[in-house]
Amino acid sequence: MLERVHEIPGVLLDAEEYLDDFWPRYRTVDGVVWKLQRVQAFPAAAPVSEDDWRRSLGLVGEGPARPFPGRRVRVVERPVTSYLRWEMHLLALRTPPAEQVRVLDAAEVSDLEGRRRLPELVVLGTAVMYEVTYDSAGVHSGARRIDALDVVDACRGELEKLFALGEDLRDYYEREIAPGTTA
User: Fold this and answer.
1) Contact call for residues 131 and 34 (beta carbons, < 8 A)
2) Which InterPro entries match (predicted)?
3) What are the tens digits of pLDDT across the range 82-132?
4) Residue 64 domain-assigned (yes or no)
5) Per-residue pLDDT reduced to its tens digit, 47-59
């Protein structure tokens, strides 16, 4: 189902509409908040150049407390981009962790990716899912809200399976990210 999300009917929301729709639902979530992240870099991302680690790490702060569990599946390609190095630092240095994060090598999802990469998804409990969208330049443009409960349920089940296959973020970080970091 994950590989077909882009074909599922949904409500198209621009970036502002997405946030207006997302936050009220987020505050009343009825279960786990799931994220599937596949994009490897963003054009307007935080300062993540290899030469600017001190500044980049200075941006890492405590995440907001969550009244419900969060789980993230992060797909990573090699070589790891500067953006992903920064993101991994952000996620690994949060204390306490705002969510459980598991990392999958892109090869582990290749069977799900025919002509398209897996989508960027946010699933809020059991009620709604957003396919986060980007324009041709890679800039966030909004989302498609999918309300079909059978689709939300099927995607949540597939995310649970991917999560179980993934490696714990801290183990991945210590092995793949921390040794290459300059500070």
Assistant:
1) no
2) DUF6879
3) 888 888 888 888 756 668 999 999 999 999 998 889 999 999 999 999 999
4) no
5) 444 444 444 444 4
CATH number where 40 lies: 3.30.870.10
Dist. CA 63–CA 65, nearest whole Å: 6
Please name the residues in contact with 69: beta carbons below 8 A apart, sequence gap of 6 or more: 31, 32, 33, 99, 100
Assess contact for 86 and 51: CB atoms under 8 A.
no
What 8-state DSSP symbol labels residue 108?
G
Instruction: For residue 94, give the amino acid letter.
Output: R
Reading the block at residue 145, the tokens are 């809200």
66-101 as b/e, with b when 16 or more CB fall inside 10 Å?
eeeebbbbbbbeeeebbbbbbbbbbbbeeeeeebeb
Peptide bond into 79 cis (omega under 30): yes
Asked if residue 109 lies in contact with residue 69, where contact means CB atoms within 8 angstroms, the answer is: no
What is the domain count for the chain? 1
